[in-house]
Please model this.
Amino acid sequence: MNNNYLRGTLWKMFLGTLPMNRNYNEWLENTNKLRQSYKVKMKSYINLKKISGDPLGGSNSSSSDTVT
Amino acid sequence: MINLDISRTYQDKELFQSTAIKEVLKNVLFIWAKENKETAYRQGMNELCAVILFAIYPFYHFNPKKGYYDTLLKNVSDNKKLNDETTINLYNYLFDQDELQADLFFLFESVMNRGMRDLFVYSTESIGKKNKHVKIKVDFYYYKLQ
Model:
C-alpha cells in the first residue's frame, strides 16, 4: 500500500472527517454527504457573488469572470 | 481582508503562488466565515487553513469518472474484505482532486471546532479586558492628579 494513502487517511481520521471504528461504507457515505453539503454552500456563495459583486471586495470585472 | 491575507500567505512556497490554490483558500475561508458569523474571519485563519492544505495537497491526485461513486459503494458493500483493486479505488475516491476544496473546508472546520476557534475569540476578549484594566488605572491617576 502506498504510504501516501495511509498518511492522508490518518490525517482525515485524526481530524474527524473519516469516522473512526466505522466500516468503509460509512467512510464513503460520510465523505459523499460532506461533499454534497459543501456544493450547496458553494452554490449560495456564487449566488451571493452574482447579487452583490465580489463580497470579498475584489473588482467587479474579475468577479463577473469567476461567476461565469 | 481575506483577499489581502491570502495574497500574503506563504508566498515563498510555490504551491501558494498558484491562482487556483489562492481561489481555493479564499472560497473556504469566506464560506467558513459566512457560516460562523459570531467568530467571522480573523487574521491568522488563512495560515491555519494553508497549513492544512499544505499537509493534504500531495495526496490529491486522482480524477474519477462519472458514476465512480455508485460502483465503488456497491463493491465495498458486497465485499466484507476488500480486494486490492477496490481498496485502491476507495482511496482514490477519498483523494479525488476535484473535491480538494470541499475536503479542505471540513478539515478546517474540524480543526476550528477542536479548540482553535477559541484562540481567535478569546484573544480579542482578553485584549478587551486588558484595555478595561488600563482604563481603570488611567482614571485612578487622573483622579489623583486633579
Summary: Helices of chain A lie at 3-15, 24-52, 60-67. The longest helix of chain A spans residues 24-52. Chain A touches chain B through 33 residues (CB under 8 Å).
